[in-house]
Structures are given as structure tokens and as C-alpha cells.
Amino acid sequence: MALSRLDNLYRQVILDHTNHPHNKGVLDEATSQIELNNPTCGDVIQLQLVMKDGVIDEIAFDGHGCSISMASASMMTDAVKGKTEKEAIEIIADFLELVQGENIGEKKKVLKDAQMLGGVAKFPARIKCATLAWKALERGIIEENQTVVTEELHSEE
């Protein structure tokens, strides 16, 4: 019975972020713009960042894809907005471990709603959907003040 309630909560949180995404849109003054796609399922994410003094001041995404992909992008923006580059990179690493099925313990809390995506570890094909926005963010931080046009992610995995 408890597992059924957890599954319901999982679905509700994903549907809420899919139907009412946070930070979806376009930023006029973006310092980094990244567009990635996952050719295995057709998900596309365009991520924009405004970095100020090493902090993610603004973040927005647009794109299309499955509910996991779009919900994950929404959750990711909530988890990293206002964080330093270093903190964001650590949060990304925690998320990537979580969706691979690793037990990250108390570090889950910094992921906010994104911790609910830990269940995708049971569905390897969905991991790519869940990680697309996070990989775009990682690239946006590493390649700050750059515009990366569409790149395929996971094309050989």
C-alpha cells in the first residue's frame, strides 16, 4: 500500500511540473544558451542562464519532449537558481547519481522535487530523458558566455 502511495506522489509531482513548469520561457539577457537533443526519443531542451558573479541569477528553459524530460527541466531550475557554479555542479552530480540508482542519502534534499525522479533508475531508457536538462546546465556552466547550438546528447549510448 505504501509503495502505491509513493508511486501516486511521484506521478503527481511529475504531472504538476509538466503541466505547470517553473521557469519556462526565454531570457532576454542570457549569458549562456545551450540547446541539446536526445535523438533516441526526440526530447529537445533549450536552456538559458544569466550568471552574475559566479551565481545562477536567472535560468529558463524551453523545448519539447516527454513528461519526464520537461518535468526534470522544471525541477532542475528550481534546484539550482541562486546557487553558485560550484554548488550547481555538485547538485548536478548528486542528481546524476540518484537517477543511476545510487543512494545519495541526505544530499537528496538539495534536489528539492527532483529527488522524486530517483525512480527512473528502474527504467534505463528514461534516464536519458531525466538527465537532458541537467547535462545542458552542466555544459552551460562549463562553457559560460557561450552559445552552443543544437547538439545530440546520448547519441551513442
UniProtKB/TrEMBL annotation:
CDD domains: IscU_like
Pfam families reported for this sequence: NifU_N
Domain NIF system FeS cluster assembly NifU N-terminal: 10-129
UniProt xrefs under InterPro entries: NIF_FeS_clus_asmbl_NifU_N
PANTHER family membership: IRON-SULFUR CLUSTER ASSEMBLY ENZYME NIFU HOMOLOG
Protein name as catalogued: Iron-sulfur cluster assembly scaffold protein IscU
Lineage of the organism: Bacteria, Bacillati, Bacillota, Bacilli, Lactobacillales
Gene name linked to the record: iscU
